[in-house]
Design a protein that fits this description.
By secondary structure, the chain is mostly helical. The protein is built from 14 helices and no strands.
Amino acid sequence: MGREVNRVRSKEYKINRCVIYIFLVGLTVLTIYPIIYIFFGSFKENRELVLGGWNILPQKFVISNYTDAWEMANFAGYTFNSVILSIGTMIVALFVTSMAGYCYARGEFPCKELFYNLMIAFMFINVGSISLRPLFELAVKVHLNQSRVTMILISAAGSQATFIFLVRGYMNTTPKELDEAAKIDGCGFFHIYWKIILPILKPVLSAVALLSFRGGWNEYIMPMIFTMSNPSLRPLTVGVVSLRNMGDRAAAWNIMFAGSVISIVPIIILYMFTSKYFMEGMTVGAVKG
């Protein structure tokens, strides 16, 4: 009887494992396929892309798509703009979220939980592009509609609630005895933040840095609107999409695909070097809120 039960349990376990593997493989294919399609499409002739078909490999590898994309889209200038936007977004996000997360975790002030819960509630509200018009009109009134600073602040504000949630959760896993010991040594509230808390927050801040950098790098609609009157400030995402109109008569999908591949390389390299801290920060920071 016992052997029969074990045999049934073993069979159920194998079936469950098989279903999980099939699900994960399917999810992986759905995630990676668009990237693979764009990568091989960047080596195709435009005519082959327009005709479509199931053959993902190009009939003939056209390396000149990359040189054409680099020259047509002013990649050097657009890449510089994207780097400034991404790094600026990352710096603002790191400063604001680390300070806010520390204050919500260790500070005591009236209506703290109310403010925190209201902020967390906005994690589930996404007004998207609807907010761009009032933001643009506000920028025009204060004469900042053609400034990188405005784009950086708007981009950094997009995920602040999520980042503060992660930082506060990570702070709640650290012992408060560290703060108390620092207070005995004469450290004030902000001195403790600078000398004690920031080094402890390294894993979760690495996750915040990567996510905010990626957000600034991939931003499209907002920079497109704010740079319509000043194309020299366009980031790489806006420049890549403009490549579609570089062809003769037909849309130059092959050139745009090549530009897209070039634009995603930096963020992949960044993730390769920071993935360890990213995974640690995401898992530990989300344990407690």
